[in-house]
Amino acid sequence: TKGIEFKSVDFRYGSGNQELALRNIDLWIPRGKTVALVGSSGAGKSTLADLIPRFYDPCGGQIKFDDEDLRSYDMKTVRRRMGIVSQDTFLFNNSVLYNLTYGCEWAGEAEAVDAAKRANAYEFIMNLPQGFDTEIGDRGVMLSGGQRQRLAIARAIIRDPEILILDEATSALDTLSERLVQEAIEELCHDRTTIVIAHRLSTIRNADQIVVMERGAIMEVGSHTSLLEQE
Ligand code: ADP
Ligand code: ADP
């Protein structure tokens, strides 16, 4: 079965007697589905998301990717199949186009990126006004916070990742823009990509699964509507 499976995963930052940042996480993320991790700040959403590209390894339990232990993979290859957008995603102090294409070159797959798809992602995500100069940056024009987030998302998406991790990736957008960007992501990636969204607020509309976290643990897993009905 294809997907990511967390089995009794514990994680703590540092080695000593620090409290667990994640405790006893059991979670099944089927391939091609969208999972939203929600919960207050410090709940463990980013930590959980960071275990998928192995920025950290669990101190207990196991993570499996397509039935194999995540640690048995060559992570350089696996990370190439991932798109990761977090709040501190690195953008070059350069033009929009440079940032978009560099992500592909780094992954060694510039030629694999379909031109039409690139244009699509670009248009949907960036929502650029008519006549927008994509060489900005070179000319010292700064992007807004929201524009930078859109650019980071577009850069991740045009590589057609198998797994897309969005960690507070739309937090600088207003509610309407955020919804439009989320809808565009769904439309561009739908069944092909496993999407993991970590978000402080539950503004996520179209996730297949909502995972509610609190103090390093999963409190509840359900569909959006079933969780809304309880509120
Ligand atoms: P969330 O993404 O839900 O806001 P985090 O995963 O960032 O939560 O944090 C979970 C817990 O781990 C918090 O108690 C936080 O203080 C702690 N934590 C996060 N990052 C680090 C780090 N780099 N070093 C030590 N503790 C950390
Ligand atoms: P914010 O970051 O303020 O939330 P958005 O990123 O949602 O704003 O962008 C709001 C509008 O302004 C969008 O139509 C966007 O294309 C446009 N915009 C943002 N930054 C620039 C810029 N540097 N030059 C021209 N238009 C921009």
Please give the share of residues in helix. Answer: 25-40%
Number of helices: 7
SS-based class: alpha/beta
Q: Please report the distance between the alpha carbons of the first and last residues.
A: 34 Å
Strand proportion, as a percent range, falls in 25-35%
Shape: globular
Structure write-up:
GO terms for molecular function: ATP binding. Keywords: ATP-binding, Membrane, Nucleotide-binding, Transmembrane, Transmembrane helix. Its main location: membrane. This is histidine kinase. Residues 4-231 form the ABC transporter domain. By secondary structure, the chain is an alpha/beta fold. The chain has seven helices and ten strands. The strands form two sheets. It has a six-stranded mixed sheet, sandwiched between helices. Residues 127-129, 132, 141, 143-147, 150, 172-174, 177 line the site of one adenosine-5'-diphosphate.
Blueprint (SSEs and pairs):
Elements: E1 3-11, E2 22-30, E3 34-38, H1 45-51, E4 60-65, E5 68-69, H2 75-80, E6 82-85, H3 96-106, H4 115-126, H5 145-157, E7 163-167, H6 175-189, E8 194-199, E9 209-214, E10 217-222, H7 224-230
Parallel strand pairs: 3-8, 3-9, 6-7, 7-8
Antiparallel strand pairs: 1-2, 1-4, 4-5, 9-10
Bound molecules: adenosine-5'-diphosphate (ADP) (2 copies).
